[in-house]
Design brief:
The chain is of the alpha/beta class. 38% of the residues lie in helices and 10% in strands. The longest helix is centred in the first third of the chain and has 20 residues.
Length: 313
């Protein structure tokens, strides 16, 4: 699946070389830009305004600059604990969340289906209430979005979507930070068209990969076979024939094109020439999963205000 993001991301300002102004550190002060996310759930980004999403990206850039580049220690989540529920295996989601939460002074608790079986050994309602009494937030990677919706309804602590059958908001945040057949769900298309109209941009849908890539600044593809779809492998490989991203695809893109992939990647999705090229940002994209999930946790659990000058988006 390819997306032409030329207009949507034209004003992104989180690229290398951007100059930031650092202010004195003030932990726990009221938010300077009046965005207040503390206590909320992150089930899908459609529940957040554009300004709130920009705030999370600003906070991500702030944490990345202060911790990675300046070497500061920011125990913003000291004394807080996180329940990490994983019904599906994970590399980037688990590592970014577990190491990020610990880096901020918190204690992440990893729970697999051997430890907790949502809605089976115990009702979702009871699980939500137990976790609310013992931890400060829950990140859940589940098969069904409806399970997350119930957890959010019954819990008294923030619930964060680590991946469901419908949404992967923390991946989208990492993609945005990095940038500065199978038809899409009709309801998602309708919502995307609405957002495109509100932001004076254009949404184009096509089954032609070259048409999709034409003039695009960013080329994105995804895994063709997600977890739980292994039995469809042969059918999917046939259906996606001709959709591999190659230099032929890139030739019709904008001269400054870049490439993204959420990983793990298979060669049939994108060839080595593109994947390992200087235009590929897949590994910075993977690293940014850590800084964006840290920003999500800080914004949902604290009153911290970014000290970095707010970037232009």
């Amino acid at each position: 699946m390819l997306f032409n993001l030329r207009i949507l991301l034209n004003n992104a300002a989180l690229r290398n070389g951007h100059s930031f102004v650092v202010r004195n550190f003030r932990c726990g002060q009221p938010l300077q830009n009046k965005v207040q996310l503390k206590g909320r759930d992150l089930l899908t980004l459609k529940n957040f305004t554009g300004e709130e999403i920009k705030y999370m990206l600003w906070l991500s850039a702030d944490l990345k600059f202060r911790i990675k580049q300046k070497g500061e220690y920011l125990p913003l989540l000291q004394g807080k604990s996180l329940s990490m529920i994983f019904e599906k295996r994970s590399t980037r989601t688990r590592l970014s969340t577990e190491t990020g939460f610990a880096l901020l002074g918190g204690h992440p608790c990893f729970l697999t289906t051997q430890d907790i079986h949502l809605g089976v050994n115990e009702s979702l309602t009871d699980t939500a209430r137990v976790l609310s009494s013992m931890t400060d937030a829950v990140l859940a990677r589940v098969y069904k979005q409806s399970d997350l919706d119930i957890l959010a309804k019954e819990a008294s602590i923030p619930i964060v979507n680590g991946l469901s059958d419908l949404y992967h908001p923390i991946q989208i945040l990492a993609d945005y930070l990095t940038l500065q057949g199978y038809e899409p769900d009709p309801s998602i298309i309708k919502l995307a068209e609405q957002y495109a109209k509100e932001n004076s941009t254009k949404l184009s849908l096509t089954n032609d990969p070259l048409e999709a890539a034409r003039g695009g600044n960013v080329l994105i593809t995804d895994t063709w076979i997600s977890m739980g779809q292994e039995e469809e492998k042969k059918k999917r490989l046939q259906a996606f024939q001709g959709y591999q991203v190659t230099m032929k695809t890139a030739k019709v893109a904008a001269s400054d094109w870049t490439f993204l992939h959420c990983l793990p990647r298979k060669p049939e999705e994108v060839d080595d020439e593109v994947f390992y090229s200087p235009r590929s940002l897949v590994f910075p994209e993977a690293e940014n999963r850590k800084w964006t999930i840290m920003a999500v946790m800080v914004s949902l659990l604290t009153d911290y205000s970014p000290q970095l000058q707010k970037p232009k988006f």
